[in-house]
Amino acid sequence: MASIIILFSLSHSCGQKLADVIYNKVVLNVDGDLELDMLQDARFWHPHSAGGNIAEIMDGEWNVTFGDYATMILKVSDGFYGHIAAGTWWIDWADADFSRVPLNQTIMVSFDIRIRVANYTGNVWLRIALASAFQDPKSLDGYSVKYTELDLYDSPQALSHPQGDIKNGGNIIFKGGDVTEFRYDSISISEWIHYEFNLTIWHEKAWGDIAKTGLLESVYIVIEVDCRECMGYGGTAYAIVDVDNLWIYKLI
């Protein structure tokens, strides 16, 4: 019997398809393989810094470049903290039907990642993870966002946070406020590794029944650092991470 490929598409201003249904998958993001030009790569991967005092605009502290794969670079010294990220944020570019994807279905993510460099001095908090956020429509404002993160690399300081349970044999790096961070792996430096995660299950592990009514907002790779001596994390950090074939899809 000949193979049947069903294609379903939504129009988009750049002429790309927002969703391709192939067999039992509906792909939810665009340009996961970085096959567009660099300007479009930057649009759909949306590199940025947040959550601290790292410069908002790419400079000597951080950079993200696009070619055969995305390369994320973070280099900070004592006193700096925050994170840089690149991936997919549907609320940035997608049509209304895709801007928030319901989590009451099986949502998967697959990607290839290589940590080329992960150097630090002192007691720096350094972690590299897959992160995903969803909106909680039942929150007071209907927009409260919760984050679930799967750590692929952690410095010793990241593993010893008092709001985690690693020291007791658990797998939670940190749980507090709107963030739950799990320790999933400890990547070997310089090796390409392929991962595939069931995001629905991980969000439910982190947040229970709240996740079942959640609306998926983003999936991305994050490098987070804290070099503030006043917080007990003084030192420097330098990380280079390559990412390719980042695809988010739902099973049908």
List its salient traits.
mainly beta; globular; single chain; 252 residues; seven-stranded antiparallel sheet; Jelly Rolls
Would you summarize the structure shown here?
10% of the residues lie in helices and 44% in strands. The protein has 4 helices and 15 strands.
Structure overview:
By secondary structure, this protein is mainly β. The protein has one domain: Jelly Rolls (Sandwich), CATH 2.60.120. Helix content is 10%, strand content 44%. The chain contains four helices and 15 strands. The strands form two sheets. Strands 3, 6, 7, 9, 10, 11, 12 and 14 form an eight-stranded mixed β-sheet that branches. Strands 1, 2, 4, 5, 8, 13 and 15 form a seven-stranded antiparallel β-sheet that branches. β11 and β12 form a beta hairpin. It starts with 20 loop residues before the first strand and ends with a strand.
Question: Oligomeric status of the shown chains?
Answer: single chain
H and E order: EEHEEEEHEEEEHEEEHEE
Number of strands: 15
CATH top level is: Mainly Beta
The total number of structural domains is 1
Into which percent range does the helicity of residues fall?
under 10%
Label the CATH architecture: Sandwich
Strand content: 35-45%
Report the sheet with the most strands, covering strand number, pairing sense and barrel closure: 8 strands, mixed
Write down the CATH topology: Jelly Rolls
Give the CA-CA distance, first to last residue. Answer: 21 Å
> Which structural class should the secondary elements be placed in?
mainly beta
Shape: globular
The stretches of 5 or more residues where confidence is low (pLDDT under 50) are 1-19
Number of helices: 4
Mean pLDDT: 87
Radius of gyration: 18 Å
